[in-house]
Amino acid sequence: MIHEWQRVTKHMRETPRKKDSVGHRMSEVMAEVGPAILISCLTNMFADFVGSFTSSPEITLLCTGNMLSMWFAFLYQMTFYAGLMSIVGGYEFGSDEIDKNRMEINIAENRVNIARHHRPLTRQPSKFHEATQPIISDSLQKYTHLMTYPPRFRIHLPSLPGIPGLQCLRYHSTEY
């Protein structure tokens, strides 16, 4: 949906129309991606529907849960996510209107160059990203180390003849 929104926005910037609005852009996006989302959801739900008629209760429960999750994912994409994109698109649309009305005059080589500038589609780092990046990076490094070098437990049985020993677990970890 985001890719289609960017494609529609680029097309509207290149060929401005009088009826351009957030609703029009969103309708173009939904007309393009809506059928693909619906078909994808229906095929997954049909496959899980067929799988829910197996003799194994675990597989039946898994397939039934998958059918429900696919239905809720479809509802989420068509309602909440599309609405959220419309709200954010409204801010983008307003910013485009402001940028469209700005003109920069460059004087070079005895001529005047009047160019309309649009916002570049580059990502600007946010304060939230800068604040959370070290925490997330450190957490991911520790998680990767834990998955790569899992702690080892060794079972120790005391060797006393004729007496069953108690099992003791000793924790051995590698230094980080």
Automatic annotation (TrEMBL):
Quote the subcellular location field of this record. Answer: Membrane
Q: Name one GO cellular component term.
A: plasma membrane
Instruction: Give the record's membrane topology.
Output: Multi-pass membrane protein
* Keywords recorded for this protein, A-Z: Glycoprotein, Membrane, Transmembrane, Transmembrane helix
Transmembrane ranges?
A: 29-50, 70-93
Q: Does the keyword Glycoprotein apply?
A: yes
- Name the family the entry cites: Belongs to the patched family.
Q: What is this protein called?
A: SSD domain-containing protein
Q: Which organism is it from?
A: Caenorhabditis tropicalis
Taxonomy, top ranks, is: Eukaryota, Metazoa, Ecdysozoa, Nematoda, Chromadorea
